[in-house]
Write a structure and sequence with these properties.
CATH architecture: 3-Layer(aba) Sandwich
Helix content: 25-40%
Number of helices: 5
CATH topology: Aminopeptidase
Largest sheet: 4 strands, antiparallel
Shape: globular
Distance between the termini: 21 Å
Structural class: alpha+beta
Radius of gyration: 15 Å
CATH superfamily: Gcn5-related N-acetyltransferase (GNAT)
CATH class: Alpha Beta
Length: 154
């Protein structure tokens, strides 16, 4: 079941974020990159829940299995799924709900900054790679891609 994230669930989102990165991204990124990228704080995730225009979670039998959050500019900011729930439709369902929201707000395209690991996922969901860039966390750089997809009208 997909629903809005609730205050007090920041610690769970932080765990999903860390487990997803450490469990799914080891082929494309080094241990140092994984360490810095997977770090976060409960306070940071509580702020994310409170301040993002949209933060949705997938809940399966009382367990949160993934989440998606949009930036204030309505680009897709974070989309993470627990490794044991990856490739089972959770990410696709979360992304679909985010796209529905964007369409309902008048957006004509969905844009995301994605990890190298997620390129195949986004392509399967109809996105195209627009450009490549780097994200810098302190002294550590991560290669990422910008992906986008045209959206239909709601």
């Amino acid at each position: 079941m997909i629903r809005a994230a609730k205050q007090g669930e920041g610690h769970i989102l932080m765990q999903i974020h860390e487990k997803s990165i450490r469990g799914l991204c080891t082929k494309e990124y080094s241990p140092a990159q994984l360490d810095i990228w997977s770090s976060g704080s409960v306070e940071g995730y509580e702020k994310l829940i409170a301040n993002c225009p949209l933060c949705l979670v997938d809940e399966d039998d009382g367990q949160l299995t993934g989440f998606v959050a949009l930036r204030r500019n309505r680009s897709i900011w974070q989309l993470y799924v627990l490794p044991e729930h990856a490739r089972k439709g959770v990410g696709k369902a979360l992304l679909g709900k985010a796209e529905q929201y964007l369409s309902s707000q008048g957006d004509t395209r969905a844009v995301a900054e994605a990890s190298l690991t997620a390129i195949g996922f986004y392509k399967r969901c109809g996105y195209t790679v627009v450009s490549q860039s780097k994200v810098v966390f302190g002294s550590v750089e991560l290669d990422v891609v910008l992906v986008e997809k045209p959206l239909g009208k709601v």
